[in-house]
Design a protein that fits this description.
By secondary structure, the chain is α/β, with parallel strands linked by helices. The protein contains 19 helices and 25 strands. It is globular, with a radius of gyration of 23 Å.
Length: 555
Amino acid sequence: MSDIEIARKANKKPIQEIGATLGIDAEHLLPFGHDKAKISETFIRSLADRRNGHLVLVTAINPTPAGEGKTTTTVGLGDGLNAIGKKTAICIREASLGPCFGMKGGAAGGGYAQVVPMEDMNLHFTGDFHAITSAHNLLSAMLDNHIYWGNEQDIDIRRIAFRRVMDMNDRALRQIVCNLGGVANGFPREAGFDITVASEVMAILCLATDLADLERRLGDIIVAYRRDRSPVYARDIKADGAMTVLLQQAMQPNLVQTLENNPAFVHGGPFANIAHGCNSVVATTTALKLADYVVTEAGFGADLGAEKFFDIKCRKAGLAPEAVVIVATVRAMKMNGGVSKDDLGTENVEAVRKGCANLGRHIENVKQFGVPAIVAINHFVTDTDAEVEAIRKFVKSQGSEAVLCKHWAEGSAGITDLAERVVKLVEGGAAQFAPLYGDDMPLFEKIETVAKRIYRADEVIADKKIRDQLRQWEAQGYGNLPVCMAKTQYSFSTDPNLRGAPEGHSVPIREVRLSAGAGFIVVICGEIMTMPGLPRVPSAEAIRINEEGLIDGLF
């Protein structure tokens, strides 16, 4: 059966029953139908004095067309921990419509390790992304309106720093000219769109701790610069209050359930290759107050999602993960070892060994943050015992352990071995988490630190304009911010075709953006786009409503 067929057969419980397992009374749940709800801010505030549970991060090798199954493993591990008697919640991101209708498909797990309702999660869900898009574009509209009605802030329209967004892949909107049509429509200027998951408003919602913090951060957004080069903030054009109103409900975490009726927080969705790639701080911290174990994930490979989880989210939210699970597959190891996608079903132990270099690099990188790592081998039916054993032996040589997991086909029963080993890791108390760099390090050195220690680059290439911009931000008081690297997810380098564990490459910086409200510097490397395009054959071509009124084509 397909993922969506399995999801439709789920024996879902009313969302009030799922909330009750965490001690959330029905009065503190804002239901969206029978199977999803938002958790009230009042209830979240009441948890402040509770102790935190244990935080476990699930990350992965660099993604390949073979598929890795990171979210599937996150969901499976949450179910597995519950199955061995540990009160556990999972925390994942919401799905963007862009990749859903593009090439990635859904983001709710797969097989018998899924979060439901699958269709809702992959489409409009509870409307959070629409609220973020609206709040972002309200600010854009108010900025252009301010200029139209006299430009009291003396904004230099050549130095507007805020682009519009939409939650769809649309390359035609990357660069546009707006305000055409004459005097009544404003002053023509060059502009553009990013995808909503790259919006600073998305990042702010995912890093804010409450509504007051949200409004402060929204007010800190730099939208443009004056003719004297001083920054213009969202609060200067009085947009922060109305934006907060639009985001009030979106700030409340969403509660849903797994196929095995375990609680799942699904909230926020910044991309990991162009944003910080983690679910919201408020969802994670709330889950930590309610469960003994919280399993969360970070987008794409550990070089992107995990690095940003550690260096941005954990740094800003005061979180300390106690174990990391790195997801890998035999198929992906073979692709990293040079095997084509069409030949992945044929046993090739030597290619597995060769491809393990990518996995080894991620293990080394995670350990740099002082957190113990374990490898989950996400099982496919074409895997042979010899291929699995090759990964196990390699991982053991790296001072870690690899566990074969069959949660896709068997649910929690197929991943209890990993669950028990994760508990041992956590209870062993070996974690001594620390970010990769200190707050006081100069911005360019932070970029070099990530590039050299995580990507294994020899150099970072940045022209004088970019270096001067970084120094200017330091002079303005932003030098203590972390850096958010926008880079291809497919390679440690900025070349998406360079698989394995490359060394000695260069990291070219095309642009830097100050996200003063979110609290980080976005560093755009190589050819990465903040507005993706659809592939030649987008998933949207196969998505439709069938004769029974059900959605086909989501996966």
